[in-house]
Amino acid sequence: MVCALGIEGSANKIGIGIIRNGEVLANVRRTYVTPPGEGFLPKETAEHHRENIHQLIKNAFKEANIEPKELDVVCYTKGPGMAPPLLIGAIVARTLSLLWGKPLLGVNHCIGHIEMGRLITAAKNPIVLYVSGGNTQVIAYSNKRYRIFGETIDIAVGNCLDRFARIIKLSNDPSPGYNIEQMAKKGTQYVKLPYVVKGMDVSFSGILSHIEDLADPSKRRNKRKKEETAIAEAEYSKEDLCYSLQETIFAMLVEITERALAHCGSNEVLIVGGVGCNERLQEMMRIMCEERGSKLFATDERYCIDNGLMIAHAGAEMFRSGSQMPFEESFVTQRYRTDEVLVTWRDD
Fold first, then answer.
1. How far is C-alpha 102 from the geometric centre of its chain's CA atoms?
2. Which coenzyme or cofactor does it need (predicted)?
C-alpha cells in the first residue's frame, strides 16, 4: 500500500492530490484566471501558485483526513511546462520532503494524465489521445515506453482554442476552451477552414491565422484582399466560427487516432488532458470507435484538467515499482517528452 501526495503546477492551475492504494483521498486545485483577451504569463502565474499552494496543502490533508506521517512519498510535476510555475511546485515538494523525511519523486506531466485516465476508466491498454493547452499527442504503450505515434508540429490544440477565445474576447472563467465549447453549441453554419494532417502529425497554427482573419477581416495580413472579402466574411458569427473551429480540428484528431488504432490493432481509445473533457470531441471520437467496434474511455473535468491527484497517482506507481530520485536531481524541465520515461510499473 502506497500513500502519495502530488503537486501539479505546470501551467495556470495549482493542484494538490492525495491517493492511497488507488483510492482518491483528496483532489483540490485553484486556477489563475486572467481578464478576457489576455493569456497567463509565467511570472504572474507563479505568483498565483505561491500565494495559494500553502492553503491548498492544508485543504488536501483536511479532505483526506490523514497526517503527513502517513505519506510514503512526495511527488511533484518535473515537466513539461512553464519554468516559474513548475519551480513553485518543486521547491515546496523539496521542502516537504525534507521536513517530513519522505522520499521525493519528479513526475512527467503527460504520464500523470495517462495513468490518471487509466485508473479512473479502467482502460487496459488503450490508444491515448493526449490533448491540452501545451500538448497534442497520439500515444501507444510498447516495451516499457509510451510511444508517440503522432503529434502537433507547431501549437497544441488547446493553445489554438485558447488563443481564438482571446481573439474574440471570450471569458477565461472557468476556461476559454469551455466557453468556446458552449458558444459552438449555438453555431448553425459551418465555415470551411484549412484541414492540416501530415501523415500522423497535425498543424494548428495556419488554421488559427485563417480563422483570426475571418473573425476580424480588418486585420487581414494580405491588405489587397481586405476590401474584397470584408463584406462576405463579416456575416460569420462568433458562434459559427467556434463551431467550425471545433469541427475541423477535432476531425483531424479523430483521423490520426483512428489510424493509430488500426496500426496497433487496439480496441480502446482513451482521451486525456484538459481538452479531453470537451463533449463534442468525445462524441466524434465515440462515433469513430463504434464504427470500428472499439470502446472510448474519457473522464470529466475533475481528472482530465490538470490536477495534483494525477501526479500523486503516477508517482505512487513509480514508487511502488522501485523508482528512486536523488535529491540533487529534483529539478524541473520545460521540455520533458512522454517517451523519455521508462515505464517500470507496467509488465504488459
1. 28
2. a divalent metal cation
**Is 32 known to sit in a ligand binding site?**
no
| Assigned CATH for 3-114+304-329 | 3.30.420.40
Band of residue 109 on the pLDDT scale cut at 50, 70, 90: very high
For residues 172-178, average pLDDT = 96
Give the model confidence (pLDDT) of 225-240 as tens digits: 555 555 444 579 999 9
124-223+231-300 CATH, one of 1.10.10.10, 3.90.600.10, 3.40.50.1820, 3.30.420.40: 3.30.420.40
CA distance 278 to 299: 10
Residue appearing with cell numbers 501523415: 199
Query: Binding residue per annotation — 306?
Result: yes
The answer, as to whether pTM is greater than 0.85, is yes
27 is in an annotated binding site: no
Residue spans in the chain of domains classed CATH 3.30.420.40: 3-114+304-329, 124-223+231-300
Q: How far apart are CA 222 and CA 213, in angstroms?
A: 10
**C-beta of residue 107 within 8 angstroms of C-beta of residue 77:** yes
Is 203 annotated in a binding site? The answer is no
Q: Is 132 annotated as a binding residue?
A: yes
Cα(243)–Cα(328) distance, integer angstroms: 48
pLDDT number for residue 235: 75
Q: Is the pLDDT of residue 275 over 70?
A: yes
The response to whether 187 counts as a known ligand-binding position is no
The helix-helix angle for 176-184 and 157-167 (nearest 10°) equals 80
How far apart are alpha carbons 53 and 131 in whole angstroms? 26
Residue 109 labelled as part of a binding site: yes
303 marked as part of a ligand binding site: no
173 is in an annotated binding site: no
